[in-house]
Amino acid sequence: MSGAMRHHSTWSRRELLRRTCCGFGGVALSSLLADRAYAGLLRDGENPLSPRPTHFPASAERVIFLYMDGAPSQIDTFDPKPRLEKESGQPIGIKVPKTQFDDVGGILPSPWKFNQYGESGLWISDLFPHLSKHADDLCVVRSMTSKFPEHTNANYFLHTGSGLQGRPSMGSWLTYGLGSESSDLPGFIVLNGGLIPPGGLDNFNSGYLPASFQGSVFKRGAQPVANLNSTRDSKEVQRAKLDLLGDLDERALERAGSDGEVETAITNYELAFRMQAAVPELMDLSDETQLTKKIYGLEAPDPHTRTYGTMCLLARRLAERGVRFIELTCPGVGHDRWDQHQNLKQGHEDNARAVDHGISGLLTDLKARGLLDSTLVVFSGEFGRTPMAQGSDGRDHNPHGFSMWMAGGGVKAGQAYGSTDEYGYYAIENKMEMHDLHATMLHLLGLDHERLTYRFSSRDMRLTDVHGHVFHDLIA
Fold first, then answer.
1. How would you label 224-259 residue by residue, b for 16+ Cβ within 10 Å and e otherwise?
2. How far apart are CA 120 and CA 470, in angstroms?
3. Is 177 in the same domain as 289?
4. Distance separating alpha carbons of residues 244 and 323, to the nearest angstrom
5. Domain count, the chain
6. Nearest C-alpha neighbor of 333 from the set 314, 315, 311, 355
7. Residues 365-411: pLDDT tens digits?
8. Which of 75, 64, 61 lies closest to 407, judged by CA?
């Protein structure tokens, strides 16, 4: 094979189209450029995180995802089941599949009382005394389902629409489709409360999408990202080095042709430089009033409440700064997340105490600042839990019916949508699958889930794969 042929074999698809622009390749390229999903990535020199237009008018501009790692129990939080009290300790009266650990005891009633709140009369358990004040802001879905009963696969499914490792996270899809309104911060940020979920960082990865769209994990404390401060060089010297590096990369691109990885690296160098000024300003809460800090629980006696409250306050500050997708993970409270296979009462109470105050403060603050209408807040675990006991005082995994909620961003508030059976085991009315949730979220953000595609491995890939329906009953 000649040297020329060897050189041509290394051309990217994009470079091949560029060099054959006067022939058949030009026809293909013009077709691709007519599609915004491709054109946004194919224009030379464009920042991949630049804001892009929606498919249709959007209700929401951003997402704050309150991820409840480990799976809260639906029958102890938002889906009361009186039958459990009547049949306490008895075998469950319906046929159920094997559970994850197949250690099945009798019916276990909820240790907490439920009450109706707000004008909507939404049922919420005593686990959430602060959140219950926002009943009329919540759209509770009681009929969510998952395809996986194990944490790692279920986490991938919730985050990426696939139970397999390596697919892009929904935060990556959203920033790919819409870009970001922040020029100094990543478009997709994960605020790590202390627990990275089973499945690890691949829950926040960009998969086959360009690396610019992956989640940036911010740790707790004043230094949430590595190398935030330069210890050797002044800003001027850093700027000069960055300009030189960019110039060298641009020359390499001119010689070898366009390369998405190199272009992404250049973009990330520039963003990292700007973050050195933006992140310390973000983390400095001295400009927040004492009242604001109080409503987020920053003065609470429980350190985990203060941790999560601080994260919720940072989420609001990130929303104000134009970050497109913000995810919060849970703090470690001394139990295995919300995953209470035993000691349900203390485990759920400790986890709820950690997040309840901060979430209430977030909803209050977003509403007061006029941000809730344009911010979709999502609260969910990866599946639910069983109504019968595991052992004597725990609950096993249940993917067949569980609860989550959304607020703001154009959802129809003050409603409980869908239902499970009398035991709270199976979704039986308005059953909603994970692909449906993703399709509905994208719709609220102005994106058609069937049109938001990325060509990979000779196939148009999408977050919802070949599934998903928009649930218009959830939309105001």
1. beeeeeeeeeeeeeeeeeeeeeeeebeeebeeeebe
2. 24
3. yes
4. 29
5. 2
6. 355
7. 999 999 999 999 999 999 999 999 999 999 999 999 999 999 999 99
8. 64
* Side-chain half-sphere exposure of 269, counting CA atoms within 13 A: 17
Q: Which of 276, 308, 341 is the last residue of a domain?
A: 276
Residue 430's H or E segment, with its range, is none
Q: Domain range for residue 424?
A: 55-220+285-474
Q: Which residue has the tokens 């994960």?
A: 190
**Based on the domain organization, do 149 and 234 belong to the same domain?**
no
Indicate whether 302 and 446 sit together in one domain: yes
Q: At what angle do helices 434-444 and 170-178 cross, to 10 degrees?
A: 30
Calpha distance 193→221 (Å, rounded)? 10
d(CA 1, CA 62): 52
Average pLDDT over residues 459-475: 97
Give dist(CA 191, CA 222) in Å, integer. 13
Tell me if 70 sits within 8 A of 352, measured CB to CB.
no
Are both 412 and 327 inside the same structural domain?
yes
Q: Are residues 430 and 383 in the same domain?
A: yes
Place of tokens 């390749």: 25
Residue 144 lies in a domain: yes
**pTM for the whole thing?**
0.86
Measure Cα distances from 469 to 215, 342, 427, 431 in Å: 26, 36, 17, 11
| Residues 265, 290 within the same domain | no
In a domain, 118, yes or no: yes
Query: Would residue 168 count as lying in a domain?
Result: yes
Structure tokens at 377: 């807040």
Is 7 inside a domain boundary? no
| 464 touches 169 (CB < 8 A) | no
- What is the rounded distance in angstroms from the CA atom of residue 109 to the CA atom of residue 388? 8
- What pLDDT, on a 0 to 100 scale, did the predictor assign at position 8? 42
- In this structure, the dihedral spanned by the alpha carbons of residues 150, 151, 154 and 158, taken in order and rounded to 10 degrees, is 160
- Which tens digits make up the pLDDT trace of 167-223? 999 999 999 999 999 989 999 999 999 999 999 999 999 999 998 999 999 998 878
Residues in the chain: 476
Distance CA 376, CA 78 (A): 19
